[in-house]
Amino acid sequence: MATSKDVTSVRMRGSTGRILDLETPPALFERIPGATSEDEDGMSTAGVSTTGEVGASDAAVAPVSAPVDSATAPAEQAAMIRALELALRGPRPGVNPQVGCVLLSPTGERLAEGWHRGAGTRHAETAALAALADPSLARGATAVVTLEPCNHHGRTGPCSVALIEAGVARVVYAVADPGEESHGGGERMRDAGLEVEQGLLAGQVEDAIRPWLTAVRLKRPFVTVKWASSLDGRAAAADGTSQWITGAAARADVHRRRADADAIVVGTGTVLADDPALSARVDGAALFEHQPAPVVIGRRPIPEGALVHRHPHPDAVRRFESHDLGAVLHELYQDEIRTVFVEGGPTLASAFLAAGLADEIVVYLAPTLLGGPRAVLTDLGVATIDDQRRLTVTEVTRLGDDLVIVARPDAAAPTKPLED
Ligand SMILES: NC(=O)c1ccc[n+]([C@@H]2O[C@H](COP(=O)([O-])OP(=O)(O)OC[C@H]3O[C@@H](n4cnc5c(N)ncnc54)[C@H](OP(=O)(O)O)[C@@H]3O)[C@@H](O)[C@H]2O)c1
Question: Which listed residue (30, 125, 343, 360) is catalytic?
């Protein structure tokens, strides 16, 4: 039976920028919602939960089939927390997921660890294998990985094969790989005689890499719709001016979130009204190393002198003279864009929401009143209260005088893949 010294507490920032608090009893695998399990002593092995954030972990979790009181169980759980911590060191933008891996000896000692540092570099599992003091230590070891080891030859070979060939005996992963080409590593390893378990801390890992998982599952970029609003829900004053509703801390947070996205999307209305630079800057000046691709959607022409034309990466600027958001997202996904940050005005924000294409909403709420007609959203097709678009709040943070509220659609009304 585990003791209090096995309890681990870790605070980390997830892929959507949200702080994840992991304060975990040494219970083993995620519980199937609604189900309970008991160990041989009749003690409940409660599912691991996150603390301190609203709605922290309500993700669907995978069924599990793990032994509940093996001697190495607390070590595997602690290793998964460490693997997630390592995963989140990897770059957020881009086509590859953030993945972490810890290798344990058969008695639960940590042997090596690794994480994926971006496209073209080693995957987490092979990085951990390469970090072993002696390759022979992999024989009989357990690999604890946040994502199912891949099963395909990309720029690197399949990690499932690397683990098999290294002599690893047991693999514990949190979340199944949804990739069309890369999934199936678990089955391949099982077929090769390895012991394979899925589901340890699945809810937390799911939460931390939700944008990548959503994009791959839905085959379109994960869409965050952001707006800044007065306390009375207005996006601009009566004359259309909206710079600035929020304070410096909130604007800095916007730039950090931009830098975590593959693309920033606006409508022509915002370009014509505000002439935004659509770059991600630190303190309004220096550029973040990663610059999301600026995307402008709409049929009206953009003035030649618009700031977006002077973007630091002019070749990255994308222009869609269309209102077909599905086609835009499809094309962006084909171009390896997995996350988009929509910063348009009320028209574009409402169009994404009405189409069921907004996976996350980030609202900066300023303690000011504007009144007047310029509400943050236009028509969402909600004709009656039964059609309201309920959300689950996942984060509330105070930034200076402002609040940032992050929410996502209720599980009862999930966002959509693209229509064929
Ligand atoms: N508070 C905030 O967070 C915030 C953020 C941005 C802007 N603003 C303010 O919002 C105002 C501009 O609002 P806006 O609504 O005009 O800006 P917008 O939403 O950025 O642009 C609207 C334009 O997007 C194009 N568009 C692309 N796809 C569309 C679709 N599926 N459905 C409809 N239109 C689509 C249309 O352009 P075409 O007509 O060219 O086809 C449409 O007129 C300004 O006052 C600005 O200061 C506020």
Answer: 125
